Each structure stands twice: as C-alpha cells, then as structure tokens.
Amino acid sequence: MNGVLIIDKPAGLTSHDVVNRVRRIIHERSVGHLGTLDPMATGLLPLVLGSFTRLAQFYTHAEKTYEGTIRFGFATDTYDAEGEATGERKEVCLDREQVESMAALFRGAIEQMPPPFSAKKVHGVPAYKLARKRKEVVLQPVQVEVKEFEIVSVDGDRACFRARVASGTYMRSVAHDMGIRLGCGAHLEQLRRTAVAEFTLEDAVSLDQLMGSASTSIESLFVHPRKLLPQLPSVTADDANAARIRSGRPVNLPELSRARQVKVFYSQSELIAIATRVAGTLFHAKLVLCGEQISVAK
Q1: Each residue of 125-164: pLDDT tens digit?
Q2: pLDDT at 254 exceeding the cut of 90
Q3: Residues 81, 194 contacting (CB under 8 angstroms)
Q4: Mean of the pLDDT values across residues 233-262?
Q5: Distance from C-alpha of 77 to C-alpha of 187, rounded to nearest angstrom
Q6: CB burial of residue 230 (10 Å; 0-12, 13-18, 19+)
Q7: Please, are residues 134 and 119 in contact by the beta-carbon 8 Å criterion?
Q8: Pairwise CA distance, residues 197 & 194, whole Å
Q9: What is the distance between the alpha carbons of residues 14 and 270, in angstroms, rounded to a whole number?
Q10: Average pLDDT estimate for 79-96
Q11: Per the residue annotation, which of 8, 38, 177, 203 is the catalytic one?
Q12: Interatomic CA distance for residues 184 and 89, integer angstroms
C-alpha cells in the first residue's frame, strides 16, 4: 500500500505512537512520518506508506505552520505545559503592544537553543533521555528561521500566536526565550500544527476516521499523488517509457522548461518515479517507485 496519509494527531500520543497505530490499522509495516510532533501538540502529521517512504528525503527541510498559546509567569524544564515549573510563579497581565514588540525580535534568522527535552543528540544520545535521568544536557545553539510570527490575541497571562517556520525551529524555545526577555518566565501551553510543506489540515483525517474506514476505501483517504511535491513538474510516461523507468533505464521525456527534476506518472494517479535530467530531454530516474518493488538508481 503506497501513498501519503495525513493524520490529525491528538494530544497525548507521540509521533511514533501514531505510526504504530496506523501500521496496525492498515496492515502495512512500512510507515514513516515527515516531522515529529511533541506528545502535547496536536495537528498535522504526514505519514508516508509503502514505497512512498522513499519520498521522505524531499521533505527534510519542509517548512511548518503552527498555531499556539504561550503562557507567561513561569518557565518549565520542558519549555511546555507538560514540564515542571523551574521557578516561582509570577502574576502577569500582558500588554499586547509589549508582546508584539517582543515577537518582532524572533522573526527572521535567529540563533536558538534547543530544549533539553528534545531529540537533539548529545554524544550520540537523544537529549531527552539524559534530561529524564536528570543528567546535565549541554546543547549548542543553532540558527533557525522564523518566517512569520504573529500575535493573534493577548488575554491576561496568555498570548495566542500563528507562526511559519523553517525546519528545525522549536516553538517551545521561542516561548521560553520570550519569557526570559520579559523577565517573568514563559512556556508553550498549547501547540497545533496546521501545515507541513504542501499539506494542510484539509487533507487530514483522525485516527478514529481511519479505523472506521473499510479496508477497501482506505486509499481514498490518501493525498492524491498529483498534489505531492508541487515544485516539481509532472510528466506522464507511455507504456514503453514506463517500462524503461521501472527497469532503471534512462528515457526521453517531454521538454518541461529545462526542469532539473520531474515527477513521472503512469496514468493519472500512479507516481512511478522522480527523474533527474541528464541532458536535453534525457532523464534518469533518481527514485523508482514500482508497486511493491522499490529501486533507487545509482
């Protein structure tokens, strides 16, 4: 079973929990996700199934969009609502203008310290494993990009926001750092992911919806292959070229404005390859998706 399935993740499950549940529901062992969501967070979790797990390489740097709430007055050790308070709680009544001015400092390319409870590696060990054992976690700041960061509303000690960020950005760290700058502490109280790359919540289904679908109709919940990787032009191969592509041989494809890579379809909905231009109209498949058989061209 090959495809992309968008799950609206509920709170309380890890991304790996969702992957395991989907494996059991659809009886497909080969399932992966395109970007971890913290257990507390909800929202869009794209899954790649079967041979389409090979497409994950094209989403490594995908941007993401979030909506959430930052609570001011105290920080936590996890930088979110699931952690323990790390200082005394302070009574805070936020001024919207002040919060918006602060948010402006976090737009663009910024240097950010990842949370100690994160998947960042410390000498090959995920930081969260060390943090859970109360061991010292020494992480290095990294450069990330916050492309949009809008304060939607302010009420008492809480600020609701929308953000669009580059891959690797932690909104937990943004919340934590805003609390430091305001001198009152802060943490991420709620987070919902609303988009990853070309995928939005309009494409998403719940785990309950997936469980309630008959096995024969599960594929109808998949994102249509023509919607995948919209930055790559699409070309439809005839029988002869499809056979060559499936066997890993180069083929001549229609001219597509000198595109370096293209998506190759056989019929309207069967994505069979991602091909790279060799010269002129000659393309060689970088990635071949052949039903149950998968081969990657050297």
Answers
A1: 666 676 676 766 667 788 999 999 999 999 999 999 999 9
A2: no
A3: no
A4: 87
A5: 9
A6: exposed
A7: no
A8: 10
A9: 31
A10: 93
A11: 38
A12: 8
Instruction: Specify whether the CB–CB gap between 73 and 89 falls below 8 A.
Output: yes
Q: What is the largest CA-CA distance in the chain?
A: 71
Amino acid 151 reads I
Q: What are the structure tokens assigned to 154, written together?
A: 């302010």
Q: Are 118 and 130 in contact (CB under 8 A)?
A: no
Q: Could you write out the three-class secondary structure of the chain?
A: CCEEEEEEECCCCCHHHHHHHHHHHHCCCCEEECCCCCCCCEEEEEEEEHHHHHHHHHHCCCCEEEEEEEEECCCECCCECCCCECCCCCCCCCCHHHHHHHHHCCCEEEEECCCCCCCCEECCEEHHHHHHCCCCCCCCCEEEEEEEEEEEEEECCEEEEEEEECCCCCHHHHHHHHHHHHCCCEEEEEEEEEEECCEEHHHEECHHHHHHCCHHHHHHHCCCHHHCCCCCCEEECCHHHHHHHHCCCCEECCCCCCCCEEEEEECCCEEEEEEEEEECCEEEEEEEEECCEEEECC
Query: All domains of the chain, ordered by start, with CATH?
Result: 3-57+199-223 (3.30.2350.10), 64-196 (3.30.2350.10), 232-296 (2.30.130.10)
* Residue 38 annotated in active site: yes
The Cα–Cα gap between 80 and 47 comes to 25
The pTM of the whole model exceeds 0.85: yes
Residue 28 has pLDDT above 80, yes or no: yes
Q: Which amino acid is at 31?
A: V
For the stretch 36-76, pLDDT in tens is 999 999 999 999 999 999 999 999 999 999 999 999 999 99
Structure tokens at 69: 């709430």
Residue with tokens 């050297």: 298
Give, to the nearest 10 degrees, the angle between helix 171-182 and helix 96-104. Answer: 120
